[in-house]
From TrEMBL:
Matches recorded under PROSITE patterns: MFS, PROKAR_LIPOPROTEIN
Residues passing through the membrane, by range: 18-41, 53-75, 146-166, 172-189, 224-245, 251-273, 285-304, 310-331, 343-366, 378-396
Pfam families per UniProt: MFS_1 (PF07690)
Stored SUPFAM superfamilies: MFS general substrate transporter
GO terms of molecular function: transmembrane transporter activity
Keyword Transmembrane helix in annotation: yes
Domain Major facilitator superfamily (MFS) profile: 12-402
Statement: the UniProt record of this protein carries the keyword Transport: yes
Protein name: Transmembrane sugar transporter
Alphabetic keyword roster: Membrane, Sugar transport, Transmembrane, Transmembrane helix, Transport
Native source species: Caballeronia telluris
Length: 413
């Protein structure tokens, strides 16, 4: 048995916590950028149809589902830092395969990219759980998770520019080099790998992280909540631009501004909800408030009309983005709080299996509803039911705990 222990979070210096958080943020941003590189560059790649982009993303997140489940074994064997480095190198390989411009290699690249993306969050959650005091857990996880919209924003700005002035292959190759560089720069954090077993064993109990989550009522409800939230998130990122342009009657430039507001608010929301969770001491209550605001935003978005005025449209989009895109950090912080000691990576990986499943099935279901009703606006209004279901699940554990307290009034000594 390995008896080496890392320093408790409370003993880590503030400077060390900042450096660790910065590295996990960079890793998350680059990993997200790698998953979005192909969809962003698709218009510049000859012969790539929109349907191919959808298939690519589906394969990526299918790989992420697998990667999140086996992520616990990878983190246990290699340590959370080495696991993150290996994941980034796997994504660099995927980007290199994409730059070959061979359609037969595209799905393999998508699978490798997803397999690399899956362990990133379990590994970084383990890193932050070991280095962050409980009082700052919410804001730390939220800061790290801003890497998701940040990676999307930076990639969306940089890759089209590179493709225009150089080539789309140069963009992919440059991102692959960046992934390898971030992996290398993270090496000083390997002191956090002291408890690694040194053996990478993916046994027949690969499903154990999922079973752990399903066996714990609160973790189970959180996993389902994340599935519902992720379906809402990708419905914003994937369809909002098309809705604003095609049905709300806005020009591309104006629609692009409102879309950017939603994405930017997603970054701000991750910080706001994390800070609020730390202030009131309850991530679950913050998530309940997010559910209410998200449901109202869904209905308001589906009712968009140009006569509202740009200010009103931006406000609604900002609230929608802050909730539908900004929930992840608080969710991960709550998972870390509920997880048994030493099982943060395992529990996070098991819960993310459900999160990524929501990404795989949510947007296609949203698109199918929009197609059947011939209205993206109706689909957004109907989407408001999803956060209401999540709210009911979040309220359930509170009701159960209050019921047990009433049933055992004389237990305190």
């Amino acid at each position: 048995m390995n008896n080496r222990q890392t320093a408790p979070p409370e003993q880590a210096s503030l400077g060390a916590q900042i450096v660790t958080l910065a590295c996990t943020l960079a890793i998350q941003a680059v990993a997200t950028a790698a998953t979005l590189a192909f969809p962003i560059l698709a218009p510049a790649i000859p012969g790539v149809q929109p349907a191919a982009v959808g298939v690519f993303l589906a394969v990526v997140y299918f790989g992420a589902m697998i990667g999140s489940v086996i992520g616990s074994a990878v983190v246990t064997g290699l340590g959370p830092v080495r696991a993150s480095q290996a994941a980034l190198l796997l994504q660099a390989l995927a980007l290199a395969l994409l730059s070959v411009d061979n359609a037969n290699l595209r799905l393999l690249a998508a699978l490798l990219c997803g397999l690399g993306y899956g362990p990133i969050t379990p590994a970084s959650s383990q890193i932050l759980a070991r280095t962050t005091p409980a009082a700052r857990m919410g804001i730390a996880f939220s800061l790290k998770q801003t890497g998701v919209p940040l990676g999307g924003l930076l990639t969306g700005a940089a890759l089209p520019f590179i493709a225009t002035f150089f080539s789309w292959k140069t963009g992919l190759a440059g991102l692959a080099v960046l992934a390898a560089a971030v992996s290398l720069v993270s090496s000083p954090l390997r002191t956090l790998d002291a408890e690694a077993t040194g053996r990478l064993v993916i046994s027949t109990t690969w499903y154990r992280p999922i079973a752990e989550v399903l066996a714990h009522p609160q973790l189970r409800s959180m996993a389902v909540v994340s599935l519902l939230f992720s379906a809402c998130q990708l419905s914003v990122s994937g369809y909002l631009m098309a809705f604003l342009h095609r049905e709300a009657g806005m020009g591309l430039a104006q629609a692009g501004v409102i879309y950017a507001v939603a994405q930017g608010a997603g970054i701000a929301g991750r910080l706001l909800w994390g800070h609020l969770a730390d202030r009131i001491g309850s991530s679950r209550r913050v998530l309940m408030a997010v559910c209410v605001l998200m449901a109202l935003s869904c209905v308001a978005t589906g009712s968009f009309a140009t006569h509202w005025g740009i200010e009103a449209l931006c406000v609604v989009s900002a609230v929608f983005g802050a909730t539908a895109i900004g929930w992840n950090g608080v969710f991960l912080g709550e998972l870390a709080r509920l997880a048994p000691r030493g099982a943060v990576a395992s529990v996070t990986g098991g819960a993310l299996f459900f999160t990524y499943f929501g990404v795989v099935v949510g947007p296609p279901a949203f698109g199918y509803l929009a197609e059947r009703t011939s209205s993206l606006g109706f689909a957004y209004v109907a989407l408001g039911v999803v956060p209401c279901i999540a709210l009911a699940l979040l309220c359930l554990p509170d009701r159960q705990m209050r019921r047990r307290a009433v049933e055992k009034p004389g237990c305190s000594q």
